[in-house]
From TrEMBL:
<dbReference type="GO" id="GO:0005886">
    <property type="term" value="C:plasma membrane"/>
</dbReference>
<feature type="transmembrane region" description="Helical">
    <location>
        <begin position="131"/>
        <end position="153"/>
    </location>
</feature>
<feature type="transmembrane region" description="Helical">
    <location>
        <begin position="12"/>
        <end position="30"/>
    </location>
</feature>
<keyword id="KW-0812">Transmembrane</keyword>
<dbReference type="InterPro" id="IPR032816">
    <property type="entry name" value="VTT_dom"/>
</dbReference>
<feature type="transmembrane region" description="Helical">
    <location>
        <begin position="42"/>
        <end position="63"/>
    </location>
</feature>
<keyword id="KW-1003">Cell membrane</keyword>
<dbReference type="Pfam" id="PF09335">
    <property type="entry name" value="VTT_dom"/>
</dbReference>
<dbReference type="InterPro" id="IPR051311">
    <property type="entry name" value="DedA_domain"/>
</dbReference>
<keyword id="KW-0472">Membrane</keyword>
<protein>
    <submittedName>
        <fullName>Inner membrane protein YabI</fullName>
    </submittedName>
</protein>
<feature type="domain" description="VTT">
    <location>
        <begin position="30"/>
        <end position="156"/>
    </location>
</feature>
<feature type="transmembrane region" description="Helical">
    <location>
        <begin position="173"/>
        <end position="190"/>
    </location>
</feature>
<keyword id="KW-1133">Transmembrane helix</keyword>
Length: 211
């Protein structure tokens, strides 16, 4: 699925990112972080517009948070039943519940980017726990803005500053970042190869085919 989404990303840009981040905030298995880094790289390569990419990702994430919060608010009993069941989802919900009770608005903020796997479940549990909507929204907007800035910014800088990304990957930004850096390196080589072909064609030389 990731490969397919990356293939169509240059064509659908901000609209695709809006959908991807929205679904990821509802606990759908969507590679949102990888997509944002790749979109930043495409923007720097001239295939997308950077601020469109960032805005699309941010709007989708905020909408996804709001949907998750209100699902939790309206379906308190359902969330509690999900927590009572076994499995990974129940474990994530229980962990998110404890995190939300301990940290409040800070749980919302940090779960957007620092402990992002908990993010969708914090949305549900914050709603189920009757957290104030204003407090939740403030934490959501601040956290999602940080998330988008980090990952789109990493993608925008990856084309020329890959060396700076590896310490972040090594120190815990995560597997998604490592995958995205590898993807962007491949994109960089592809763009360089195309530039070489165009330069060779303009000089009347026979371009060397990529192996």
């Amino acid at each position: 699925m990731t490969e397919t989404l990356l293939t169509i990303l240059p064509d659908y840009g901000a609209y695709l990112l809006l959908l991807v981040t929205l679904l990821s905030c509802l606990a759908m298995p969507i590679p949102a972080s990888v997509m944002m880094i790749a979109a930043g790289g495409f923007a720097m390569a001239g295939d997308l517009t950077l601020w469109h990419v960032a805005l699309g990702a941010l709007v989708g994430a905020i909408l996804g948070d709001q949907l998750g919060f209100h699902i939790g608010r309206l379906g308190t009993g359902h969330v509690e039943r999900m927590e009572a069941k076994g499995g990974k989802q129940a474990y994530a919900l229980r962990k998110a519940t404890a995190f939300t009770r301990q940290r409040g608005i800070w749980a919302v903020f940090f779960s957007r980017w620092l402990v992002s796997p908990l993010g969708p479940y914090v949305n549900f549990t914050a709603g189920a726990a009757k957290m104030g909507w204003i407090a939740f929204t403030l934490g959501s907007i601040a956290g999602e803005a940080t998330w988008v800035a980090i990952y789109v910014g990493m993608g925008a800088g990856a084309m020329d500053q890959v060396a700076y990304l590896w310490p972040l990957v090594r120190d815990g930004i995560g597997f998604n970042a490592a995958v995205a850096v590898a993807v962007l390196l491949g994109l960089r080589l592809w763009h360089l190869h195309r530039a070489h072909q165009k330069q060779a064609a303009s000089k009347g030389e026979t371009p060397v085919k990529a192996q």
